[in-house]
Every structure is written in C-alpha cells, then in structure tokens.
Specification:
The protein is of the alpha/beta class. It has one domain: Flavodoxin domain (Rossmann fold). It contains 7 helices and 5 strands. α6 links the parallel β4 and β5. The termini are close together.
Length: about 180
C-alpha cells in the first residue's frame, strides 16, 4: 500500500465553524501532524453549477466543459492521494453545495481510473438522533466512490448535533482525528 501524501478535504456546510466544519478541521490538524499535505476546499462558498447532462465530457476526454470553480476542484482531487467528503446531512444525503461537485465527478468517470486507488472518507453530522439518518449519505458516498474506484478508508457519522458547538459534547472530534490515521495504511 502506498503512503498517502496529499489529502483534499471537501466541505459542504454553509456554516463556518459548524459541527461538520469542526470535525473537518480536526481531521486536517491531525493529518498535518502525521505529515500529510492537506487542502480544504469549502464548496459552499464556490461557484459550482450542477451537472447539465450535456454529454460534452464524453467527447472531451472526461473534462467537464462548464466554466466554473469545479475545474480547480477536480484538478486538486486528481492531484491528491486521498479525499475526504465532509457534509452535514441535508434531507438524508449530502448538502446541495457538495452534491453539485459529486454530480460533476461524472465527467471524471468518463475516463475510468482517474480516481482509482485513492483513499476516501466521509465525515458527517446531523441534528436527528437516529443512526439510520445517515443511511442515505453513506449509501451515496459508498456507491459513488466504488464506481470511481476509490478505496474507502472510513466514515465518521455523528448524530444529535444541531447548534454550533454541539460537536464538543460528543466524541466526533476524536473520531475525526482517528480517521486521519487510516490514511497511513
């Protein structure tokens, strides 16, 4: 197994300093201490349009032709050895901001293998207290990354956190730090 050197953390929360954001920052802090080069991309504050199903990526060697911030995001993902998706649960799946990026990864899959072998992880929080609230986001994450050929390193899923700071009352921060160690293997 190859040592992961670069990890991109895609966040999807529009709440800076929110619960998911704090777990992402804890992951980044721990990964940096372990010697990884990390890059945080806050999708909620970028201009990323949804996939238009135009099919142009099939004719352009897997490159999306839409002109927005996705180009820089996909370049970072292709350059990375690991990817972390950090999103609060919105209606049982990813937030719209990060979902637009995931949908646009369809273009990458037009040339199979571009993300093959990269490690990937999911960090998520929700206000609901039921563990089954994560079923949708976990399913979407696992199926999408399997299709793209990535290796799943793990998931941190923390329920029952709504207000900013609620994450401090859980072991979510510690779990996010532990998740960084899974990228060593």
């Amino acid at each position: 197994m190859v040592f992961v050197k670069k990890i991109v953390v895609l966040t999807g929360s529009p709440r800076k300093g929110g619960n998911t954001d704090k777990m992402a920052d804890a992951f980044i802090d721990e990964a940096s201490k372990l010697g990884f080069e990390t890059k945080k991309i806050e999708t909620a504050f970028l201009n990323v349009a949804g996939c238009r199903a135009c099919g142009c990526c099939e004719k352009s060697g897997g490159k999306c032709v839409l002109d927005d911030d996705f180009k820089a995001i996909v370049d970072a993902l292709l350059d990375a050895d690991g990817i972390v998706f950090a999103s609060p649960v919105y209606w049982y799946t990813f937030s719209a901001q990060i979902k637009a990026v995931i949908d646009r990864l369809y273009s990458v899959n037009r040339t199979p293998g571009k993300l093959r072998g990269k490690k990937a992880a999911l960090i998520s929080a929700c206000a609901d207290d039921g563990a089954d609230t994560f079923d949708g986001i976990r399913f979407s994450f696992e199926r999408s990354l399997k299709l793209l050929g990535a290796e799943i390193a793990g998931c941190v899923l923390v329920p029952n956190v709504w207000s900013i700071g609620d994450i401090e009352k859980t072991n979510g921060i510690a779990q996010a730090r532990t998740l960084a160690h899974k990228f060593l293997r």
